[in-house]
Amino acid sequence: MSGAAIGSMRSGPERRFTGADLFDLAVASDPQISPDGRRIAYVRRSNDIMTDRQVSSVWLIDTDTGAEVPLAGSDGDAFNPRWSPNGDRLAYVSTENGGPQLWVRFMEGGETVRLTGLPTSPSSLAWSPDGRSIAYSMLVKDDGPTLGSAPSRKPEGAEWAEPLEIRDLLTYRADGQGYIEAGFEKIFLVPATGGAPRQLTYGRYHDGGPLSWAPDGSKLYFGANRSPDWESDPVESEIHVLDVASGGITRLTDRDGPDSHPAASPDGRLIAYLGFDDARRAYENDDLYVMNHDGSNARNLTSDWDFSPAGIIWDADGRAIYAQYDVSGETRVARIALDGSVRDVASGLSGGGLDRPYTGGSFSVSKDDAIAFTGGTATRPAEVRITRGGDARYLTDLNRSLRSVKALGEVRRIAARSSLDGLEIEGWLTLPPGYREGEQVPLILEIHGGPFAAYGPHFSTDNQLYAAAGYAVLSANPRGSTSYGEAFANQIDKAYPGNDYLDLVSIVDHAIALGIADPDQLFVTGGSGGGVLTSWIVGKTNRFKAAATQKPVINWTTQALTADNPAFFGPYWIGSLPWEDPETYWRLSPLSLVGNVETPTLVVVGSEDYRTPVSESEQYYTALRLRGVPTALVKVPGASHGGFAARPSQSAAKASAILAWFERYRSGWIRPAANR
Predict the structure, then answer these.
(1) What is the pLDDT of residue 389?
(2) pLDDT band for position 390 (50/70/90)?
(3) Per-residue pLDDT tens over the stretch 560-576
(4) CA-angle at 389, arms to 385 and 392, nearest 5°
(5) Which residue, 358, 560, 624, 633, has fewest beta-carbon neighbours within 10 Å?
(6) What are the residues whose beta carbons fall under 8 Å from the beta carbon of 23, sequence distance 6 or more?
(7) Residue 246 Cα distances to 14, 220, 227, angstroms
(8) What does the pLDDT read at residue 516?
(9) How many CB atoms lie within 10 A of CB 341?
(10) Is the separation of the CB atoms in 444 and 525 below 8 Å?
């Protein structure tokens, strides 16, 4: 049920975008075009006002007429649709009647059958070439470590404490997952007509997807780190080939760096995959490689192409590979030929999230080269679109009723030269609805996370809520952002936060010079990496009237030892472990600047954040309180780092709290004389 369905006693429609409108939003994801290009199955994600959560259903579109019909998801979530090789069936995962299970829909008759009764969720579905089997990966639980035991004589009816929890993994908790269950991801095979699944891989390491079949159905290709030291080498993986009949596994690649996402060519002669040489830098572009099916003659197709391909799919003729990539804050699909030549075949992809304007989206390709993808605009969330070599057209209009009523803020591209070195810094300025040229308005600098990510001209609920309250919102891509080449991203390698601060201040100054931003009404916020930079900014300048740092890193020493990827953050981002170079850890920590802060600063974090743990935010809040700087600590109950805006009511409430904080300090704050 949507928010609009409840009705209102107003005399007319509310033209501003409000928090309640989040319940009326829907977004398209994971569009899967049938082999013949006649139909697209996609996942529709919408917000349910009764459960305050996003629900997923699978819908089917006729690509000629645009007619849509629901296929799965009326009773539980449905997602991950995948066509059989000849398009007569559709596999998907559904939570109908319990936990997530693998289902198959027979398209001609409309019958649906549940194939599995699994203890954990299947993922990475891959049909065998003959359509008789489906491979998937799944967590296989084990008993975990034990040490001693509790007393054995428990009286009947006694209520004893829960047993001890014993952890022995380096990464023992993960954001969005919580404390990790003992077990390992393994590959399975199940008959497409039902029957007992067969486990194909074993051992104390993770064998995950995506999975790719050899055309003759005898082998499966996958990426994994099957080395004994897999826990302490966070980016390593190799391409492996699994003989389905015997269970034998052969490693095909061998280098220091990740090789992943294998895809067998239509004739089986070549394997395409993604990877890079591990230089121990915080960011690397992936490259697209091809090798012979036995692992020989590996060659890099994109060594001279300064972008990072993803989501690779072979052209049906075997002469090229489709991949999506980000450029200047936008996402496109390219066709990369085996000689390394590249040409764009689709643009305007979106779908990186609803709350902030991240790059993203996904695509699929039919045998006749029709491309289905998720695309939208700065004022339109992701829809299903299709292109057949010409202009792309929309097949869905999921938010038509909302767009017909709401006045949304216009989004403009702006760019400025950094005061540091003249490097061009790009950004997008969301204006208040009804903005009049020449009018100066309050400005919110909204900084992206990552920090290796990018904003672009994509729909954002946060930005539209801020704009509806009368603010211009600046979403900028300082050095360190992706989509501008590897060198641009690595400007902050082992130096984050740092010069990216000067980039952000420079583009704020440009927004002022344009006559849009009021220089006396500047505010700043951002999440994750944006929270880091928000805390850094208020330690460097008092220009901003108020700030809201969301899920930040405050102290790199505690972050490196309590976050959910301890083998990565210290060695790759700082270049050492905390006891090896404590001076650098402190120098790059926003906590080192807290003695300079005179800006009222709100601190916001999810209560189950394991990526930038809650203790990071709590440290900063306590430090600000001890210094007498206005602050408040806002926790989002039950929210992980990645699920910070997953519940619509919480996403709306968070934005409202930030706006209320900014409004409270519109006139600024001066420390009382007695506290100076």
Answers:
(1) 86
(2) confident
(3) 999 999 999 999 999 99
(4) 25
(5) 633
(6) 2, 3, 4, 47, 48, 49, 648
(7) 64, 12, 21
(8) 98
(9) 11
(10) yes
Nearest to 119 by CA among 41, 55, 223, 199: 199
> What confidence category does residue 673 fall into, taking pLDDT thresholds of 50, 70 and 90?
confident
Strands 441-447 and 68-72 come out as: unpaired
In the chain, the N- to C-terminal Cα span, in Å, equals 53
Distance CA 409, CA 462 (A): 12
What is d(CA 507, CA 512) in angstroms, rounded to the nearest whole number? 9
Place of tokens 């006729």: 62
Phi, psi (degrees; rounded to nearest 5) at 465: -65, -40
Q: Phi, psi at residue 508, to the nearest 5°?
A: -65, -45
Q: What is the average pLDDT score of the chain?
A: 95
Strand partners, 189: 135, 198
Q: Copy the structure tokens of residue 381.
A: 């969330």
Overall average pLDDT of the 147-158 stretch: 91
Question: Residue 566, preceding bond cis, omega within 30 degrees?
Answer: no
What pLDDT sits at residue 143? Answer: 84
Residue 621: pLDDT over 80: yes
Listed in sequence order, the residues at least 6 apart from 426 whose beta carbon sits closer than 8 Å to its beta carbon are 328, 329, 413, 414, 415, 476, 477, 484
Contacts of 633 (CB under 8 A, 6+ apart): 603, 605, 617, 618, 621
Q: Count how many residues are written for the chain.
A: 676
- DSSP string computed for 289-336: EEEETTS-S-EES-TT--S--EEEEE-TTSSEEEEEEEETTEEEEEEE
What DSSP element (H or E) covers 558? Answer: helix 556-562
Q: Which amino acid is at 185?
A: E
pLDDT in tens, 589-620: 999 999 999 999 999 999 999 999 999 999 99
